[in-house]
Write a structure and sequence with these properties.
Layout: H1 2-22, H2 28-48, H3 54-75, H4 83-110
Helix pairs in contact: 1-2, 1-3, 3-4
Length: 111
Amino acid sequence: MTKSWFEIFIGALLEVVWVSAMKHDHSLLSAIIVILILILSFYLMIDASKNIPAGTTYAVYVGLGSLFVVLAGVLVYHEAFNLTKLCFLILLTIGVIGLKRVTDIEERQAH
């Protein structure tokens, strides 16, 4: 099952790449690269859902992706950051960690 969580994590990291790439170059080649990265990111999420409940997979994928995109925006693109944004990022992180822990517990109980 660890492979599936790793796939979600890598898929979420790839989400940062394709979201960031959409923000920049607008050539046909860059659009094709964005689409290929997007497909790989979604493939990893879909493959992970074979071993993790689909709702949990999607929630963790989107949560991590959102977290990573916001952090990239702040650290790389110097977007505004404030206490309110920090509070919501903390809540998002708690939710992602909570879903993973609950899913791990349910998986152990099922075996």
